[in-house]
Specification:
The chain is α/β, with parallel strands linked by helices. Helix content is about 40%, strand content about 15%. The chain has 25 helices and 17 strands. Strand 2, helix 7 and strand 3 form a beta-alpha-beta unit. The longest helix is centred in the middle third of the chain and has 19 residues. GO terms for molecular function: 1-deoxy-D-xylulose-5-phosphate synthase activity. Catalyzes the acyloin condensation reaction between C atoms 2 and 3 of pyruvate and glyceraldehyde 3-phosphate to yield 1-deoxy-D-xylulose-5-phosphate (DXP). This is 1-deoxy-D-xylulose-5-phosphate synthase.
Length: about 625
């Protein structure tokens, strides 16, 4: 950790109120120290890097102008909020960020009163902030300001547009700040636009505009409908002058900008001038992702979450992976390219995660065969369904926890029509440091009730390749393949591409005293626990890899039901409604009465921490499974 004198100004800021006591002329220096603090900490404690560097000045300006926490700031995609955390009483604990029992990876109301809403996933800020603004008006808290900060591509999410639509028609004083770092909206420049910005944010202009509006209301000339018509006329006139239209003005949301998001003084001036304006407003701010750290500015995607790095040279400290098993996502990427080379119907689809899920492999080799649709999971699924209806075979890769947002699309736009869409759920199970918002532990439970779905999870990398090959065979219908973040267990993973029988599991080893049923890569952990239990306790334990949750291998389960009085199920998903529940249902429906002990995620949200730590907490690490096996044997 730095010495107490490392940050002369920052070390005196224990809350935004301390920040507001400083003269405005020293704020650029505060921004410099805050940016350096983020660089220092993340160089040795990995996290989301580029996004938070890009909003340092905006963060300082917001807390300087608004009376937080009474005024509400709602962050979108919370990896922008590291500076916010440091300024709101968590500076000295920031080194614990993303660690077990440390600071949450994203803003969380349970952690701080300054964190107004959960924001691990993107595009929810406008809707949540609008709800807060309406609630403030309802409670007579007319002085409370509510600000939504959206950016980093989040405006492409459908929920953001739903929020905008509602904000345009519901009485509110919401301020939306669009952090545009060139990921979603093009730059807008020109002298006339700067003139209009100065005019619109002028206190005199807006005071005159407000007084005239009140006068017209008093005379009965300007009712609500006429007010909206006048705004539409004003926006149309601006569009003619600037030769540019934007969607916000088309929705009767007053638009200001663009402004330089790295000029803290200019930001404070603009925010002060528009904060008291009535009605919904949008401030368009241009920022640079990774601002202040040249390598991150030049390679924003690479430096989104770069891991450990040398803060002086910018060199990333990359672990030597020679001889190690590959990442599951890389096996997916390479296998998808192989399949696409053999099957010209295959198309790749991903919602803004081409690098994270390795869809970029196909994009590089066959750019016309892969689509990044932006942060729009529901659209990704329905878009895939539309292509499947016309005979193509989409591999739609979505992180498991993000697929939750496309649930209706899976049912309505894929499953009902039994379309040939392969839904690849990356980051299934416990994902580690990103925490509760990102753990992919619900997918088996929420997908299992849907008719027409095939639901599978590979034991290892070879099984992933075989399942992918099987999924692209003709007339399979909707096919789900779920697999975890991180590395597999095999170094010789490039097996021949061959089909597996749908709904058939595998007996990994026979036994006589107890049966263990697993699904997915957690089966490898269970296999080690079984080996240890047999070695230490003179027992015989059978191990079954279910492979398919749906259709479930009934022949295998009949064998287990007939032969064993003691059964342990192991899964990396929630217990309520998951694989263990499916096994219990089968046993009950068929008159079998074994003692079944289920291991998985209990009915609680799991915090953030290393995957190994979280497996231990949930009892699905080798030690936890071993202990359960011994306890069950001794029943």
């Amino acid at each position: 950790m730095e010495s107490p004198t490392s940050y002369e100004l920052l070390n005196k800021i224990d809350s935004p109120n301390d920040l507001r006591q400083l003269p405005a002329e020293v704020l650029p220096e505060v921004c410099g120290e805050l940016r350096q603090k983020i660089i220092d900490e993340l160089s040795r404690n990995p996290g989301h890097f580029g996004s938070s560097l890009g909003v340092v000045e905006l963060t300082v300006a917001l807390h300087y102008v608004f009376n937080t926490p009474y005024d509400r700031i709602v962050w979108d995609v919370g990896h922008q909020a590291y500076g916010h955390k440091i300024l709101t009483g968590r500076r000295d604990r920031f080194y614990t960020n993303r660690k077990l029992n440390g600071l949450c990876p994203f803003p969380s109301p349970s952690e701080s009163e300054y964190d107004t809403f959960t924001c691990g996933h993107a595009s929810n800020s406008i809707s949540a902030a609008l709800g807060m603004a309406v609630a403030a008006a309802r409670k007579g808290e007319d002085s409370r300001k509510v600000v939504a900060v959206i950016g980093d591509g989040s405006m492409s999410g459908g929920l953001a547009f739903e929020g905008l639509n509602n904000a345009s028609s519901t009485p509110n004083n919401l301020l939306i700040i669009l952090n545009d770092n060139n990921m979603a909206i093009d730059r807008s420049v020109g002298g006339m636009k700067q003139y209009l910005l100065n005019l619109q944010t002028s206190e005199g202009y807006n005071r005159l505009r407000y007084n005239v509006s009140r006068m017209f209301h008093h005379w009965g000339i300007l009712n609500e409908e006429r007010r909206k018509s006048l705004i539409r006329f004003n926006n149309s006139l601006k569009s003619v002058i600037t030769q540019q239209q934007n969607i916000f003005e088309g929705m009767n949301i007053r638009y200001f900008g663009p402004v330089d998001g790295h000029d803290v003084q200019a930001l404070i001036k603009v925010l002060r001038e528009i904060k008291e304006m009535k009605g919904p407003k949008l401030l368009h701010v241009h920022t640079v992702k990774g601002k202040g750290f040249k390598p991150a500015e030049e390679a924003a995607t690479l430096w989104h979450a770069p891991g450990i790095f040398d803060k002086e040279t910018g060199e990333r400290i990359v672990m030597d992976t020679t001889g190690m098993p590959p990442l599951f996502q890389d096996v997916f990427g390479q296998t998808l390219l192989e399949l696409a080379q053999q099957n010209d119907k295959i198309i790749g689809v991903t919602p803004a995660m081409p690098t994270g899920c390795s869809m970029n492999v196909l994009m590089k080799a066959m750019p016309d065969r892969a689509f990044d649709v932006g942060i729009a999971e529901g659209h990704a699924v329905t878009f895939s369904g539309g292509m499947a209806e016309e005979g193509l075979l989409p591999f739609c890769n979505i992180y498991s926890s993000f697929m939750q947002r496309a649930y209706d699309n899976v049912i309505h736009d894929v499953a009902i029509q039994k379309l040939n869409v392969v839904l690849c759920l990356d980051r299934a199970g416990l994902v580690g440091e990103d925490g509760a918002t990102h753990h992919g532990v619900f997918d088996m439970a929420y997908l299992r009730p849907i008719p027409n779905l095939i639901i599978s999870s590979p034991y290892d990398e070879k099984e992933l390749r075989r399942l992918m090959y099987t999924a692209q065979l003709p007339n399979q219908g909707p096919f789900v393949i779920r697999y975890p973040r991180g590395r597999g267990v095999l170094t010789d993973w490039k097996c021949p591409l061959e089909a597996v029988e749908i709904g058939k599991g595998r007996k990994m080893k026979d036994g006589t005293d107890m049966a263990v049923i697993t699904i997915g890569p957690v089966g490898n952990v269970a296999a080690k626990a079984i080996e240890e239990a047999e070695k230490n306790n003179n027992c015989s334990i059978a191990h079954y890899d279910l492979r398919f949750l749906k259709p479930i291998d009934e022949e295998m389960l009949h064998e287990v039901g007939r032969r064993f009085k003691k059964v342990v199920t192991v899964e990396d998903g929630v217990l309520k409604g998951g694989m263990g529940s499916a096994v219990l249902e089968f046993m009950s429906d068929n008159g079998y009465t074994p003692t079944v002990k289920r291991l998985g995620i209990e009915d609680t949200f799991i915090q953030h921490g290393a995957v190994k730590e979280l497996y231990a907490i949930c009892g699905i690490d080798q030690t936890g499974i071993y202990n359960t096996l011994i306890q069950t044997l001794n029943l």
